[in-house]
Write a structure and sequence with these properties.
Layout lengths: L2 H5 L2 H14 L5 H17 L1 H13 L6 H13 L6 H12 L3 H14 L5 H18 L8 H9 L4 H17 L7 H15 L6 H25 L10 H25 L14 H16 L16 H16 L4 H11 L5 H13 L6 H21 L3 H18 L11 H14 L4 H16 L14 H12 L9 H14 L6 H20 L5 H26 L2 H7 L3 H13 L3 H18 L7 H12 L5 H18 L4 H16 L8 H15 L4 H19 L6 H25 L12 H14 L4 H18 L1 H9 L3 H9 L4 H19 L1
Helix pairs in contact: 2-3, 2-4, 2-5, 3-4, 4-5, 4-7, 5-8, 7-8, 8-10, 9-10, 9-11, 10-12, 11-12, 11-13, 12-14, 13-15, 14-15, 15-17, 16-17, 17-19, 18-19, 18-20, 19-21, 20-21, 21-23, 22-23, 23-25, 24-25, 24-27, 25-28, 27-28, 28-30, 30-32, 31-32, 32-34, 33-34, 33-35, 34-36, 36-37, 36-38, ...
Subcellular location: Cytoplasm
Family: Belongs to the importin beta family. Importin beta-1 subfamily.
Main location: cytoplasm
Length: about 850
């Protein structure tokens, strides 16, 4: 230590350093030059004291100005690093030779600055910490750093999290990957990905995490490529590999979300950047994932909950394909071509799995020629491959081909008159295979049928319809149909085949009714079942009710078939009532949905079933515990209102009482509340001015819900989504009530509610977070108000804050439904104002 320095008391130095740092940024050249000289002198004469006073300056939140703190940090950073190699080496050696306790004091100041409320101070400290880490970690010094940063991540306030993530990002840039062990790398990655997660409400934190990820990935990749050289992943390494794959999968999820949200066109002002990490990682990532596909387990197909490295790898590969699209194809094709015909089943299965995994994401054009070549091979493998695993994956892959590359939107059809016969023959044959293979074959048939849903007549499936339906029914009766979800899959496929069928096959769909009714009847006859048998019975009743629902919707939707179908309605309804009488929650739900479809199909004639059915409707509305049942029942009340119109009046007191009870209950799940409000609208539309006696109960409920849902600032995505559902329900109620009272002498009763409704529309317009559906319903309500109240609404609408802006915004919307609704509202408002 030089004598000169000893003569200056350190506190003077500390006071002075602030002023000198400020002077060094002065506009006056002479002042600036003098300050720079002083700093240089201080640094040369007493480096430890100089660095310590700079770190103290940076850490001092109480009385130091931002500008001096920023420059202090910058000088600190430059004292640790330089562009020229020899200079950099000198600085590193100089830092390493400093007194340990002095260095510890400096490091404490730096870490303390991460929780400063001043953003610039935090950011500068982040960079300096990373520079120190770059010097010390390779020397096995500062081993506790990463641990203490990671424990900061769980801290609030958010700015500490944000600064810590920023520090981790810089750290991954500065530090060579081989000095941090894999476990810590995984922890850093996990922390960063959690910070990016949508559940993290703070956007600054998400942004810092996303930026940090960019560096952390390079860091991790270096670690992966060391760890994942072609050597097999040994047993004890599987958890680490699974964790790595899990990590890459969550990155894909993030990027897919961003791409969906911004539609792939990023503007400089979007607050979450998309760095295309996956695209950059492809060359290292894809080979690693393909390698994992060969790590199958012998019995994975039989075990429903199986999850292993191969499955994780395939799932991740699928996410990568969705993230990068066409770029994945050339990286995966060589692996497929090399392994698909190998004698070892593992290689054939891995190649098939890889192929199936990349079918969603790349453009159909990119895949069409490959799929056309592969289709024949796949059909042959499904018939002839000796190995059950390979068949299972082949059937799954065929399903993916039909799901993503077949349908009215695809230009080059994969399925032609020429190959359709062979495809169906192979799939129906496979349905006789082991349960896991059969279930996947049902799935493939499901998507095959779905691809023809837009065909109006002469679907390629028509000639095979009878045979397909018969094969599926046979599957449902297999002894082992309880395994691998097989029975459920067969019914789901049967439903889809019926739903997508054309008029030519209507007579065959009609013949299916007595068959399914008979099966349902038999489930009701069974006596004295054990609880296990009863559960299976309930499940089967649910599947059969679901099947009848689809048939009812299909045949009820066109006049000629509807006429013939009517002969069965009494018997069907009778069966449903018996299902209710033997009641169990799950069946209750499917039978309830089927009754909704039946009411819709039969219209006013449904009234004759109401006396007997009403008690079950009421039970459904009272079912708080199983809120899905309650929600479904509320929906069915809407169907019945539309079917019966004013014939529902005798039941309305009971229904409205129960709905109001549901709304005021704290036990009922919040998701049921929006449909209950919509249901008010359905009832009002059905009974018109008779709704008068419910206004004094319904309107205050709607008003208080409206106030709650108007203001959402600071809500997370999930809350915003729910708020929009709630708003839509409230608006549908208002719309139904106003339309129901139209042209009635009692419209006067609604005038007192109009100002509140207009305030609600103003408030949600101002919040700027309506989704398209709410926008359409809201502008519709403005029209309903004008249409029903006429001149009484005209002046109120003219006084309202934003209805004009809102209307204009909707009129210029690209969504044709919003535009249509707005044009109607404009006419109605025009009429109301001109009166």
């Amino acid at each position: 230590m030089s004598d000169l320095y000893k003569m200056i008391p350190s506190d003077i130095m500390a006071i002075e350093v602030t002023q000198v740092l400020l002077n060094a940024q002065s506009v006056d050249g002479a002042v600036r030059k003098h300050a720079e000289e002083s700093l240089k002198q201080f640094q040369e004469q007493n480096l430890p004291g100089f660095l310590l006073s700079l770190s103290g300056e940076l850490a001092n939140d109480d009385e130091k100005p931002v500008d001096s703190r920023k420059l202090a940090g910058l000088i600190l950073k430059n004292a640790l690093d330089a562009k020229e190699q020899h200079r950099k080496f000198e600085l590193v050696q100089r830092w390493l030779s400093l007194d340990v306790s002095m260095k510890n004091q400096i490091k404490t100041c730096l870490l303390q600055t991460l929780s400063s409320p001043v953003p610039d101070a935090r950011s500068t400290a982040s960079q300096v910490i990373a520079k120190v880490a770059g010097i010390e970690l390779p020397q096995k010094q500062w081993p506790e750093l990463i641990g203490s940063l990671l424990s900061n991540i769980h801290q609030l306030p958010a700015h500490v999290k944000q600064a810590t993530l920023e520090t981790l990002g810089y750290l991954c840039e500065e530090v060579s990957p081989d000095v941090v062990d894999q476990d810590q790398v995984n922890k850093i990655l996990t922390a960063v990905v959690q910070g990016m997660n949508a559940s993290e409400g703070n956007n600054d934190v998400r942004l810092a995490a996303t930026r940090a990820l960019y560096n952390a990935l390079g860091f991790a990749q270096a670690n992966f490529s060391n760890d994942m050289e072609p050597k097999a992943v040994k047993e004890d390494e599987e958890p680490v590999a699974l964790q790595a794959i899990e990590f890459w999968s969550s990155i894909c999820d993030e990027e897919i979300d961003i791409l969906e949200e911004y539609g792939g066109d990023f503007t400089g002002d979007s607050d979450i950047p998309c760095f295309y990490f996956i695209k950059q990682a492809l060359p290292a990532l894809v080979p690693m994932l393909l390698e994992t596909l060969l790590k199958q387990e012998e019995d994975q197909d039989q075990d429903d909950g199986a999850w292993n490295l191969a499955m994780a790898g395939g799932t991740c590969l699928g996410l990568v394909a969705r993230t990068v699209g066409d770029d994945i194809v050339p990286l995966v094709m060589p692996f497929i071509e090399e392994n698909i015909t190998k004698p070892d089943w593992r290689q054939r299965e891995a190649a098939t799995y890889a192929f199936g995994s990349i079918l969603e994401g790349p453009s159909p054009d990119k895949l069409a020629s490959i799929v056309n070549m592969a289709l024949n091979f796949m059909l042959t493998a499904l018939t002839n491959d000796p190995n059950s695993h390979v068949k299972d994956t082949t059937a799954w892959t065929l399903g993916r081909i039909f799901e993503f590359l077949h349908g009215s939107t695809i230009e080059t059809p994969i399925i032609t008159q020429a190959n359709c016969q062979q495809i169906i023959t192979v799939l129906l044959q496979s349905m006789k295979d082991a349960p896991n293979v059969s279930e996947k074959a049902c799935g493939a048939l499901y998507f095959l049928a779905q691809g023809f849903e837009d065909v109006v007549s002469l679907s390629p499936l028509t000639p095979h319809f009878q045979e397909i339906v018969q094969s599926l029914l046979t599957v449902t009766h297999r002894e082992d149909a309880g395994e691998s979800r097989l029975r459920t899959a067969a019914y789901e496929t049967l439903n889809e085949v019926v739903r997508c069928s054309t008029d030519e096959t209507a007579p065959m769909v009609l013949q299916l009714i007595p068959v399914i009714m008979m099966e349902l009847h038999q489930t009701l006859e069974a006596q004295k079942l054990s609880s296990d048998e009863r559960e299976k019975q309930n499940e089967l009743q649910g599947l059969l009710c679901g099947c009848l629902q689809v048939i009812i919707q299909k045949l009820g939707s066109s006049e000629p078939t509807k006429h013939v179908f009517m002969q069965y309605v009494d018997q069907i309804m009778n069966l449903f009532l018996r299902v209710f009488a033997s009641r169990s929650a799950t069946v209750h739900e499917e039978a309830m949905l089927a009754i909704g479809a039946l009411a819709y199909a039969t219209g006013p004639d449904f009234a004759k079933y109401m006396p007997e059915f009403y008690k079950y409707l009421e039970m459904g509305l009272q079912n708080f515990e199983e809120y899905q049942v309650c929600a479904v029942t509320v929906g069915v009340v809407g169907d019945i209102c539309r079917a019966l119109e004013d014939k529902i009046l005798p039941y309305c007191d009971g229904i409205m009482t129960q709905l109001l009870k549901d709304l005021s209950s704290n036990q009922l799940h919040r998701s049921v509340k929006p449909p209950i409000f919509s249901c008010f609208g359905d009832i009002a539309l059905a009974i018109g001015e008779n709704f008068e006696k419910y206004l004094m109960y319904a309107m205050p409920m709607l008003q208080s819900a409206a106030e709650l849902s108007a203001h959402t600032s600071g809500a997370d995505d999930e809350m915003t989504e729910y708020t929009n559902l709630l708003r839509n329900g409230i608006l549908e109620a208002y719309s139904g009530i106003f339309q129901g009272f139209k042209n009635s002498p009692k419209t006067q009763l609604l005038i007192p509610y109009a100002p509140h409704i207009l305030q609600f529309l103003d408030a949600i317009y101002m919040e700027k977070d309506m989704d398209d559906l709410v926008m359409k319903t809201a502008i519709g309500v403005l029209g309903d108000l004008a249409d029903t109240l006429g001149s009484n609404a005209g002046s109120l609408i003219q006084q309202s804050l934003s209805s004009k802006d809102f209307l204009n915004e909707c009129l210029s919307s690209e969504d044709h439904l919003i535009k249509e609704s707005a044009e109607w509202a404009k006419l109605a408002i025009g009429r109301a104002i001109s009166v």
